[in-house]
């Protein structure tokens, strides 16, 4: 091969290599290298149509960002309500994207664009979440629904709104029907639907883990309101459309409950006796979970005791098996104040051959306080009202009070610490907060959450706790 031909082949190779590198660089839309990582949230520079636009006739939405973003997270976090006809197409160019639909938007319709908080840039900085509205008609709808979501984790929660009519009101199922509108809570749990048309709406809040805007009962959590909502007129506003997605402490067989239990050294016994807890209340309930249990219930119960370490008195216990492996235990009488009790599971004479022993300090008189207050309403609703206290320091410490013929309540002997207050109207009289059913639809019972945590101090009365429904 001649030198000229060899030089030509090398030139072609280098040229192809450069073109390939240039193509991949453009395709991946990588930012310039060097410098410190960007820790700021992505921002929208421009959006077309602009928020508040009317008489919009195109079927394209254009958005320009201030930086390179993660395309997939944007496409999974972009929603337009109500959903236009046809499959959406995302056309990317640098930091710009065009969202195209094959057909025109419906005439005389207000559309709401929502971009969720799971959207992020290439440095994993999350977008704060925003909504915009535009109209294909001469005006924007102005209906508003506001509420709050009470949950321990707001990260993946969405609020879905469905417009009801004579056909879908009986068979509406959020597991197989996409919503008409979607919005997201802020960091405090507050959410708002804006620019809604007049009509009746059914709302659901759910943890949309798979991000498909449908409820999956196998691994997602859903909450319903205590009634459907009707927006009347052009500027109708509905407030206090609140959802409750917290565990009230009554469901003791779920995975979240078991995660709170502490393992012994053998990894066989899991209990709610946390090492390092300073004091326990005098009516503390014990929960034991036996992992991969091959013992009989009698073998466990007959080898379990709770004893005063000074007097050696054994407390009489009640055993309640919640399932084959989860046992609830409580004493018939309260534990003596300022005493130390020993909780013992002696399985040395069984095939497990282990001993589980824990000493627990019971709080003294000086460690208990009082909480008192009133339900702020003209009269009670006719059904029992339950007031519940949940310890922020120990999830297994709860107190409850039933009110039937008085608006006043008082809790004595509350272990000092921080508490949240939850109340509900027990319409069906079963003593349990019923969150309703998403399908067939049954509204939840009416509830109220006291907005501030209460700090209980020993020998101190915290009064004027007012509950409003």
Question: How would you describe what is shown here?
Answer:
With 469 residues, the protein is mainly beta. The chain folds into four domains: 39-140, Immunoglobulin-like (Sandwich), CATH 2.60.40.1220; 141-246, Immunoglobulin-like; 255-361, Immunoglobulin-like; 366-467, Immunoglobulin-like, CATH 2.60.40. The protein has four helices and 34 strands. It has helices spanning 3-28, 71-77, 255-259, 297-301; strands at 44-48, 60-65, 78-81, 89-93, 96-100, 110-115, 130-135, 143-150, 157-163, 181-183, 190-196, 199-207, 222-224, 229-231, 237-238, 243-244, 262-263, 269-271, 286-290, 304-308, 317-321, 326-331, 340-346, 355-361, 368-375, 385-391, 398-403, 408-415, 417-425, 437-438, 441-442, 447-449, 454-456, 461-467. The strands form nine sheets. Strands 9, 10, 12, 13 and 14 form a five-stranded antiparallel β-sheet that branches. A five-stranded antiparallel β-sheet has the order 17-18-19-22-21, with no helix packed on it. Strands 26, 27, 29, 32 and 33 form a five-stranded antiparallel β-sheet that branches. Strand 21 (317-321) and strand 22 (326-331) form a beta hairpin. The radius of gyration is 30 Å and the shape is elongated. Residues 22-28 have low confidence and may be disordered.
């Amino acid at each position: 091969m001649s030198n000229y031909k060899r030089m030509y082949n090398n030139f072609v190779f280098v040229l192809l290599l450069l073109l390939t590198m240039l193509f991949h660089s453009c395709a991946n839309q990588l930012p310039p290298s060097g410098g410190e990582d960007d820790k700021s949230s992505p921002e929208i520079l421009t959006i077309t149509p602009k928020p508040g636009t009317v008489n919009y006739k195109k079927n394209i939405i254009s958005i320009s960002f201030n930086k390179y973003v993660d395309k997939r997270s944007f496409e999974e976090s972009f929603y337009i309500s109500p959903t236009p006809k046809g499959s959406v197409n995302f056309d990317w160019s640098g930091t710009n994207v065009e969202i195209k639909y094959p057909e025109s938007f419906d005439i005389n319709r207000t559309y709401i664009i929502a971009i969720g908080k799971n959207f992020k840039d290439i440095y994993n900085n999350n977008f704060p979440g925003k909504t915009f509205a535009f109209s294909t008609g001469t005006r924007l709808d102005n209906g508003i629904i506001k509420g709050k979501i009470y949950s321990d984790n707001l990260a993946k929660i969405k609020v879905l709104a469905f417009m009801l009519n004579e056909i879908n009101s009986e068979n509406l199922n959020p597991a197989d029907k996409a919503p008409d509108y979607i919005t997201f809570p802020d960091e405090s749990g507050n959410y708002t639907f804006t620019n809604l048309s007049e009509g009746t709406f059914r709302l659901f809040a759910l943890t949309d883990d798979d991000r498909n805007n449908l409820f999956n009962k196998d691994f997602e959590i859903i909450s319903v309101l205590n009634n459907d909502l009707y927006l009347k007129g052009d500027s109708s506003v509905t407030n206090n459309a609140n959802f409750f997605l917290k565990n009230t402490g009554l469901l003791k067989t779920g995975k979240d409950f078991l995660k709170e239990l502490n393992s012994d050294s053998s990894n066989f016994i899991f209990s709610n006796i946390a090492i390092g807890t300073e004091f326990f209340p005098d009516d503390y309930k014990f929960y034991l979970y036996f992992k991969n249990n091959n013992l009989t219930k009698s073998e466990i119960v007959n080898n379990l005791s709770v004893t005063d370490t000074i007097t050696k008195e054994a407390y009489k216990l009640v055993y309640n098996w919640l399932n084959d492996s989860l046992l609830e235990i409580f004493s018939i009488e309260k534990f003596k104040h300022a005493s130390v009790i020993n909780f013992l599971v002696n399985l040395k004479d069984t095939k497990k051959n282990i001993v589980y022993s824990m000493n627990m300090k019971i709080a003294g008189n000086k460690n208990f306080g009082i909480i008192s207050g009133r339900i702020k309403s003209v009269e009670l609703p006719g059904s029992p009202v339950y007031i519940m206290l949940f310890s922020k320091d120990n999830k297994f410490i709860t107190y409850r009070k039933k009110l039937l013929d008085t608006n006043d309540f008082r809790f004595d002997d509350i272990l000092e610490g921080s508490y949240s207050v939850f109340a509900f109207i027990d319409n069906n009289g079963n003593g349990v907060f019923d969150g309703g059913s998403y399908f067939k639809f049954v509204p939840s019972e009416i509830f109220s959450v006291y907005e501030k945590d209460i700090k209980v101090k020993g020998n101190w009365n915290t009064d004027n706790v007012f509950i409003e429904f």
